[in-house]
């Protein structure tokens, strides 16, 4: 099964339901609830997982699976940290991983984890299109039962092409070689709405193009098709010809990058990832 979806960024609810029904979840297929919300919501996602989740799923805590030594939120952990963390969840290098979250958007934090796996060299990872919202809407079962999977060996190797550093962003201010897309809501992009962190000033990266992540999904929370996504990006002024380099996508927080499966949904084009606005602005204020 894993080989059939090696380059598929999304899997459907029905695909996953069939896999669960046919008892295919195991060392070759793992399901992760990756739900994360802003602290202001006061939601305790691990507790929510213990009460209700997709059968056979495990919980990945984004706060734990990050660099705890960094002053900036949710920076990538080391390769060894990531390897141990996901290995403890029963994931090996030949495991197909399906990630989802419980957001009303259909996907909020799950694409972040999808990107983390890809950044660490694991291509066998997909986002559940529409998330828990559509899983429940389509009548599939949930459970509170949990059985910890047997640990697997996972070896992570960072693929630097999936990440832009702060220094790369600052250099691009001068060169303008790469287009930058900011997927925050327009109010935060324009500085008319506050940032979640009080110590971060509002605004956007110089020259950035705003494509709110909410515009990339339909009313049910499922990602729009390739043709519509391509039109949205082109209409916003993103050059998909490759002449302007691969667009870097600057987001509000590295935990909530709901654009990420679009890099595989737009045929023949690849995006990379720049630091989130919180990280960029927080560091820029101190330079």
Structure description:
The structure is a single chain. By secondary structure, the chain is α/β, with parallel strands linked by helices. The chain folds into two domains: 2-159, 3-Layer(aba) Sandwich (Oxidized Rhodanese, domain 1); 164-284, Rhodanese-like domain (Oxidized Rhodanese, domain 1, 3-Layer(aba) Sandwich). The chain contains ten helices and nine strands. It has a five-stranded parallel beta sheet with strand order 1-5-4-2-3. The protein has a four-stranded parallel beta sheet with strand order 7-6-8-9, with no helix packed on it. Helix 4 (110-119) links the parallel strand 4 and strand 5. It is globular, with a radius of gyration of 18 Å. It starts with 9 loop residues before the first strand and ends with a helix.
SSE order and pairing:
Elements: E1 10-11, H1 13-21, E2 29-33, H2 45-51, E3 57-59, H3 79-87, E4 96-100, H4 110-119, E5 125-128, H5 131-137, H6 166-175, E6 180-182, H7 186-190, E7 209-210, H8 226-235, E8 248-250, H9 262-265, E9 272-273, H10 277-284
Parallel strand pairs: 1-5, 2-3, 2-4, 4-5, 6-7, 6-8, 8-9
Domain Rhodanese: 25-144, 174-239
Keywords: Repeat, Transferase
GO molecular function, one term: thiosulfate-cyanide sulfurtransferase activity
């Amino acid at each position: 099964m894993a080989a059939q979806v090696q380059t598929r960024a999304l899997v459907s609810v029905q695909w996953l339901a069939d896999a669960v029904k046919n008892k295919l979840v195991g060392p070759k297929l793992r399901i992760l609830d990756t739900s994360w919300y802003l602290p202001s919501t006061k939601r305790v996602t691990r507790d929510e997982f213990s009460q209700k989740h997709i059968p056979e799923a495990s919980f990945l805590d984004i706060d734990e699976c990050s660099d705890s030594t960094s002053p900036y939120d949710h920076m990538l952990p080391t390769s060894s940290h990531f390897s141990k963390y996901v290995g403890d969840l029963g994931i090996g290098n030949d495991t197909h991983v399906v990630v989802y979250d419980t957001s009303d958007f259909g996907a909020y934090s799950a694409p972040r984890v999808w990107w983390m796996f890809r950044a660490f060299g694991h291509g066998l990872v997909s986002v559940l299109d529409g998330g828990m919202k559509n899983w429940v809407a389509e009548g599939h079962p949930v459970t509170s039962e949990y059985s910890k999977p047997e640990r697997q060996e996972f070896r992570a190797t960072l693929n630097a092409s999936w990440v832009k550093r702060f220094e790369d962003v600052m250099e691009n201010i001068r060169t303008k070689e790469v287009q930058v897309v900011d997927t925050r809501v327009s109010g935060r992009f324009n500085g008319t709405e506050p940032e979640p962190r009080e110590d971060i000033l509002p605004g956007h990266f110089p020259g950035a193009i705003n494509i709110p992540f909410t515009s990339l999904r339909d009313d049910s929370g499922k990602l729009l098709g390739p043709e519509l996504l391509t039109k949205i990006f082109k209409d916003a002024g993103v050059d998909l010809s490759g002449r302007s380099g691969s667009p870097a996508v600057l987001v509000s927080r590295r935990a909530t990058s709901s654009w990420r499966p679009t890099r595989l949904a737009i045929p023949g084009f690849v995006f990379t990832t720049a630091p989130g606005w919180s990280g960029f602005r927080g560091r820029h204020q101190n330079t």
